[in-house]
Write a structure and sequence with these properties.
Helix content is 26%, strand content 23%. It folds into two domains: 31 residues; 140 residues, L,D-transpeptidase catalytic domain-like. It is built from four helices and eight strands; from the N terminus they run H-E-E-E-E-E-H-E-H-E-H-E. Strands 3-2-1-8-4-5-6-7 form an eight-stranded mixed β-sheet, covered by helices on one side.
Length: 178
């Protein structure tokens, strides 16, 4: 059972949290049509709008407010520039145990990104993710809601991140526009 000594304290804490999340989603799932629960064909991020869109059949069907890198204008060129990349990538890995509430890795850097960085003798950077809020916030929650705060990632509110997690699959294309 849940009180088994073989479960770590971290795991025991996660079980009630997961159960609570599932109970919160149950009413929506009961009334949602199967079409509403279908995964996105594509993800679109428009940096100037601070929006992430889930696209299906060429049309946006969900939209979320996002925070970007601390230096959000322009394409990511190198490690440590605090920019969010621009271009076409894929959602290529998922991490339910990251330092943030869920995370989905983007396939940055592309071959072009790596070549551009190589020509300038820069490291292109990496570990660009879509993720929720920090599991251990270092600032008040209002800070994360009102400013660009990531090192170059795309951050959402935790409830929005859960929806994106559930409505995307491996290798979903993502386009990030200025």
């Amino acid at each position: 059972m849940f009180n088994s000594p073989s479960l770590s304290s971290c795991t025991r804490g996660a079980v009630p949290l997961l159960a609570a999340l599932l109970l919160c989603l149950l009413p929506a799932a009961v009334f949602a049509t199967s079409d509403e629960l279908r995964a996105a064909d594509q993800v679109l991020v428009v940096k100037s709008e601070h929006r992430l869109y889930l696209i299906r059949d060429g049309q946006p069907y969900r939209s979320y407010k996002v925070a970007l890198g601390l230096n959000p204008i322009g394409h990511k060129e190198r490690e440590g520039d605090f920019r969010t990349p621009e271009g076409r990538y894929r959602l290529d890995a998922r991490n339910p145990s990251s330092d943030f509430f869920l995370s989905i890795h983007l396939s940055y850097p592309s071959a072009d990104d790596a070549e551009r960085a190589r020509r300038h003798h820069w490291a292109p950077g990496g570990s660009i993710m879509i993720h929720g809020l920090p599991n251990v916030p270092k600032r008040p929650i209002d800070y994360y809601k009102s400013t660009d705060w990531t090192d170059g990632c795309i951050a959402l509110a935790n409830d929005d991140m859960l929806e994106v997690w559930l409505l995307t699959r491996a290798n979903t294309p993502i386009e990030i526009r200025p």
